[in-house]
Please model this.
Amino acid sequence: MSIINKEAAETLIQEQLSEYIAQDMPNGSIFMRLARRLPNMTTKQTRIPVLDMLPMAYWVGGDNGLKQTSEQCWDNVTMTAAELAVIIPMSESVIDDADFDIMGEIKPRIIEAIGKRVDEAVIFGIDRPAEWSADIITRARQAGNNVSGATVDYDTLLGENGVISMVEQGGYLVNGGVASVAMRAKLRSIKDGSEAPLFKSDITGPSQYSLDGAPLYFPLNGSFDTSSAQLVVGDWSQAVYSIRQDVTVKLLDQGVIQDPATKDIVYNLAQQDMVALRVVFRMGWALPNYATRMNSERTFCPFAYIEPTTPVTTTNLTVKVTDADGAAVAGAYAEISGARVKTNDSGEAVFSLLPGDYTYSVKKRGLTTKTGDVTVTSQAATITVTLM
Model:
């Protein structure tokens, strides 16, 4: 007689759990909740064509004036899937004796753990996978979209040079903000020009707090890094992400689990009558930063942030661009993991970065594009790139 055996049932549970994780991840990650989701990735890398140069129109002088030509071109932004994984060992006797749904308790915590790591890496660059582009804070810093956090008041938030204005100067409109829970107390004490509280509870909106009409969110997954920023705002629709379609869940009852640092065996599943739930989640993200009429050189950033009371210490990396004769090349575009700066008259582009490994590319129309890798330490450094 045919029956549903343990093996068949476990396969069904794993498929359901995989689907649950893929569908509910935006609820665990504030970034994935606000950013724009693209169709699932079918390969590790996906290329996103973005507008790199806009066409121009010209007035024609006189009856017989000649009409001028213009061009439009595109660039490729690469989105690479990085892997997150977790193994949760469980004793079989605990599972058998439990009088509540252990799997039901585990699922939301897996979502929370993955969401925390995604938010930390994408927004703040914490444990950023090497294959991912620079984080949102780094991109905003390179564009000069950081506001002093020594005093958080009306001008800091909504003033002419406030954090909202930083985003608008690049031709973007803020549609959301993210801050730490501790920021709520500061917001409640801020008043407008008529001495009325600037922030009031609104039970009808998507968030109880809003900034110039844009909702503010306070993630509770522990991902907000108060040592990097007090508040991050931006046009979140400009950031995109995609989940690799092979999210996998597997229930292991054989093998050993080792300590990653010491390589010591922590658990022997078969010998200790244990099972382990292994979850592997893969996703990629990108900030394409396509050309607009107010951001034609793609050096602006659709995000801005308020610095912590004590600003983060960064290291200057200077990219010096020369031609075959050693002369400075002005007007070239240097990119460090997606953050773009245009070289000055001395052929230099300066980046303020945290220590870590980055990729770079340097290009100028009519010359060969150069790419490479660079490691940033606590010491300022200069790399020279020659374009032919």
